[in-house]
Design a protein that fits this description.
With 213 residues, this protein is an alpha+beta fold. It has 8 helices and 5 strands; from the N terminus they run αααααααβββββα. A hairpin with a 5-residue loop joins strand 2 and strand 3.
Length: 213
C-alpha cells in the first residue's frame, strides 16, 4: 500500500470493518444492501469500542474477527481476481490460492492499525437509487467523527447467499482499481510469482504499533 495513501486506506479499513459484520440469516431475510451497511456499521462500532485488545492492534484478534464476521460477507475471490486483473486467468490454481491468502493477510494486518483509531465515528447513508431487479449496487456513505467526513462507498452483488461486498471506494479511489495498478507493475516486472513473493515478504514484516489519536 502506497505511503501517500496510508491515511485514506486507514480510513477505509476502519469504516469497512464497521460495515461488514452481519449475520447471514438477516441477509437472507431480504435486508436491502443499504440497510445492511447501516445496521452492521453501528453493531461493529460498538463491538470494537468494547474490545481493548482490538483497539491495541492485536493481530490475532483481528484475524479471528475478520474470519468469523467479515470474510463470509465478502466475495473475496472476485476482489482478489479483479485486483490482479487479466493476469488472474494466467495464474495456476496454486498461484490463485497464494494470491488470495497473501491479499487477505495484507488487509488484515492493516485492519490491526486502523481499528485502533475507532473513537466516536458514526456512519450516515447517502440517498440510494436502485431498481428491485438490480443485482449489483453501490451504497454510498459518509463516516463522521473527528475531522472532515470520509467518503466511503461499497459495491455489492446479490448472490444466493445474500449481498456480498466486492469493492470499496474511499475519497474517490476504488480499492480494486488502486491495487490493480500496483499489482500489474509488479507482475510485469517479476511475474505472478514475483508479486506473491513481494506480498509474502511485506506480510512477514512486524506489524506497526498502532498510533494513538
Amino acid at each position: 500500500m502506497l505511503r501517500n495513501r496510508t491515511s485514506a486506506w486507514r480510513a477505509w479499513l476502519t469504516a469497512a470493518m464497521l460495515g461488514l459484520s452481519f449475520s447471514l440469516a438477516h441477509a437472507q431475510a431480504g435486508k436491502g444492501p443499504d440497510v445492511l451497511i447501516k445496521e452492521v456499521s453501528t453493531d461493529v462500532l460498538d463491538s470494537v469500542r468494547a474490545d481493548k485488545s482490538i483497539k491495541q492492534g492485536d493481530v490475532q484478534k483481528v484475524i479471528l474477527l475478520v474470519d468469523q464476521k467479515v470474510m463470509p460477507h465478502v466475495d473475496f475471490q472476485r476482489m482478489t481476481a479483479s485486483s490482479v486483473g487479466r493476469y488472474w486467468r494466467e495464474a495456476t490454481p496454486e498461484q490463485q490460492k497464494q494470491l488470495q491468502e497473501q491479499f487477505k493477510i495484507l488487509l488484515v494486518r492493516t485492519y490491526s492499525g486502523a481499528l485502533a483509531q475507532v473513537q466516536d465515528q458514526t456512519v450516515e447513508l447517502k440517498p440510494m437509487r436502485t431498481n428491485p431487479e438490480d443485482k449489483e449496487v453501490v451504497v454510498r456513505t459518509e463516516v463522521k467523527g473527528r475531522g472532515d467526513p470520509i467518503q466511503l462507498d461499497y459495491r455489492l452483488e446479490q448472490t444466493p447467499n445474500g449481498w456480498k461486498i466486492f469493492d470499496v471506494n474511499v475519497l474517490g479511489v476504488w480499492l480494486v482499481q488502486s491495487y490493480r495498478s500496483s499489482f500489474a507493475q509488479e507482475i510485469g516486472a517479476n511475474g505472478i510469482d514475483g508479486l506473491i513473493k513481494k506480498m509474502t515478504e511485506r506480510n512477514a514484516r512486524p506489524a506497526p504499533a498502532p498510533t494513538k489519536s
